[in-house]
Amino acid sequence: MTDLPVEVVRVFTDPDGRFGNPLGIVDGRLVPDADRQRVAAELGYSETVYVDDAATGTLRIYSATGEMSFAGHPTVGAAAWLHSQGHPVDTLNVPAGSIRVTRSGDLYAVRADTSWGSAWDWHRLSSPEEVLAADPTSYDAGHTFLWAWQDESAGVIRARAFAPAMNVVEDEATGSAVTQLTAHLGRDLLVVQGAGSHLHTTHEPPAHATVGGRVLAAESRTIRI
To answer: What is the pTM of this model?
Structure first.
């Protein structure tokens, strides 16, 4: 067995650096394909990214239950981390395709086809309070997204996401889901999700949207593989 270093970032923090969805980032050269699923499950994050080629932004993404062709929180987090490591890539390459990366101040964003990502069971609720009061065990779909307008005129939404199909009781910040919601509503959004993470989107009709936010480093880890 060997020690595997794991970098960790929090993706979609609020402006004060709070909250955010943890992401594990692993040098793909250190983990054979056959072991990647097991390592991702052991790490316990909603997703883990394996960086197969930092210079070209080539990634693979795993949840606790399987490989994903695209996900928003891992790609935004990986883009920011690669920039911090001296690889300010303009494009990420994942199994779903090439993804454009942009940076504006401290916000990193990726542009995705809004048909990518998991299929969600959508529930629009009457108020942010109702969203916050929801019990995840009351929803048994594989992926459930609850949302309500917090400020409709300003495009601000309060949301939560439950993903038992991925062994995630509640996902703190779900980038691909909010790109789908952006396309459905046909407008740019600020989605405040989970405990308070901030996801910024832009609508790019007919078939794309961007999702972005702030990314901060967290304490790294080492696990035995």
So the answer is: 0.97
